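Input structure tokens:
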């Protein structure tokens, strides 16, 4: 499932996060339920937006089955190279 309802918020957007309820909801809607229920998840990179910012997905596991998630994450990263790619940093 997605990690966020929007792709990679900018630093400027994050600076005003508390002022924008819609953005806050978009950032939390896919992670908050699992955080609140203490359900294990693992977030893995899966690409970049057209703007060059990273995109990720998360896998959800059963309670006390973190080992399964770590194995799945390792298998995914063995088969892909997304975790080795990095976005270009903006010039100051």
């Amino acid at each position: 499932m997605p990690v966020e309802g929007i792709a990679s918020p900018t630093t400027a957007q994050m600076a005003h996060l508390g002022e924008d309820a819609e953005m806050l909801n978009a950032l939390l809607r896919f992670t908050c339920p699992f955080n609140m229920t203490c359900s294990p998840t693992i977030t893995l990179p899966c690409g970049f937006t057209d703007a060059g910012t990273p995109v990720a997905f998360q896998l959800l596991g059963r309670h006390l089955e973190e080992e399964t998630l770590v194995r799945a994450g390792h298998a995914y990263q063995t088969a892909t190279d997304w975790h080795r790619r990095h976005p270009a940093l903006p010039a100051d």
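The mean pLDDT is 88. DSSP finds four helices and two strands in the chain.
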